[in-house]
């Protein structure tokens, strides 16, 4: 962890969701001035407790912005205690989601609720819902299957009947929302815009469907950085087995083709990828679940995204209890923050 003396002071904005966003925020909070970190949280979660409270209480789904709040806590012991207590369930819902629902009601809106929760958890970073409209994330596959709402697509990873010959061909939001003005302001003022690791079709690409977000990214002078996932996921992005395939879909939703025609180079400045070895035994565990390591095909990436710089780092860490690999939050943050 960086000391208060050598924290960086960049205006960093991240757009993501789920565990990948949390991992990025842990590292960023430790290595950048916390007040200069901004997390733009997704608002289309429809599954589990978060989705149920969304319907029952008439609130925006709290799961992703609560991940951001926890990820931005500065006291590690306080964070660990919060995780232990807040995962407890009472009345059918984890306390963390119930707390978010109460805060939104007490403060007459999600933004006021988030500010109240920030004070409770001593969070100094900024957390902004990407949109304030209640929306659903829908998807279609090339074989004509339709999934209305985010959690149905997310469930495919555990569906033994899903054919790996099928793949997501389109995602869209209903109704089409406008971006939260505060999210646009943050992007326009940013030194760096980060898309952290995360489920591409449910946590990353949907941000680019929000009216105003791609336009702000193209307009801002901040550097655009993507942290590539380590593995594919069955049912969602099992077909995005190479970095160039992943990048191509991102470019499509960003509107990068028009930017390349206009400027001669991609709007994406950096693609951060892992370069350290992953144990074959761990890889085989993932393969048994329909997942694969994403291959980094550098030449193809640079061909389709002119001017793109590929940054390699030893990003992987292994959790021997869960048998999962993930990005090391400290190394990921240092790698990105040190980019010019």
UniProtKB/TrEMBL annotation:
SUPFAM superfamilies: CofD-like. InterPro entries: CofD (IPR002882), CofD-like_dom_sf (IPR038136), Gluconeogen_factor (IPR010119). The lineage of its organism: Bacteria, Candidatus Daviesiibacteriota. It comes from the Bacteria. It comes from Candidatus Daviesbacteria bacterium RIFCSPHIGHO2_12_FULL_43_11. Keywords: Cytoplasm. This is Gluconeogenesis factor. One of its GO terms (molecular function) is LPPG:FO 2-phospho-L-lactate transferase activity.
């Amino acid at each position: 962890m960086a000391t208060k003396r050598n924290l960086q002071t960049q205006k960093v904005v991240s757009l993501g969701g789920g565990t990948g966003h949390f991992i990025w925020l842990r590292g960023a909070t430790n290595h950048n001035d916390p007040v200069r970190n901004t997390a733009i949280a997704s608002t289309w979660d429809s599954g589990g407790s978060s989705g149920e409270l969304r319907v029952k209480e008439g609130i925006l789904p709290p799961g992703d912005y609560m991940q951001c709040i926890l990820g931005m806590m500065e006291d590690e012991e306080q964070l660990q205690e919060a995780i232990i207590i807040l995962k407890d369930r009472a009345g059918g819902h984890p306390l963390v989601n119930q707390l978010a629902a109460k805060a939104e009601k007490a403060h007459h809106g999600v933004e006021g609720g988030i500010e109240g929760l920030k004070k409770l958890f001593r969070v100094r970073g900024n957390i902004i819902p990407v949109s304030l409209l209640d929306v659903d994330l829908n998807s279609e596959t090339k074989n004509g299957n339709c999934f209305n709402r985010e959690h149905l697509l997310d469930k495919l990873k555990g569906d033994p009947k899903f054919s790996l010959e099928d793949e997501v061909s389109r995602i869209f939001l209903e109704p089409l929302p406008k971006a939260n003005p505060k999210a646009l302001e943050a992007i326009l003022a940013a030194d760096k815009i980060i898309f952290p690791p995360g489920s591409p079709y449910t946590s990353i690409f949907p941000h680019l469907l929000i009216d105003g977000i791609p336009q702000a990214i193209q307009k801002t002078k901040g550097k655009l950085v993507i942290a590539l996932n380590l593995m594919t996921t069955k049912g969602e992005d099992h077909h995005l087995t190479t970095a160039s395939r992943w990048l191509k879909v991102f470019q499509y939703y960003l509107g990068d083709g028009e930017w390349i025609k206009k400027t001669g180079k991609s709007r994406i400045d950096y693609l951060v990828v892992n370069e350290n070895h992953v144990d074959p035994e761990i890889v085989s565990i993932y393969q048994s679940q329909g997942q694969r390591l994403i291959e980094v095909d550098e030449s193809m990436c640079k061909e389709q995204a002119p001017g793109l710089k590929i940054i390699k780092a030893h990003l992987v860490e292994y959790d021997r209890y869960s048998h999962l690999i993930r990005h090391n939050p400290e190394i990921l943050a240092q790698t990105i923050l040190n980019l010019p």
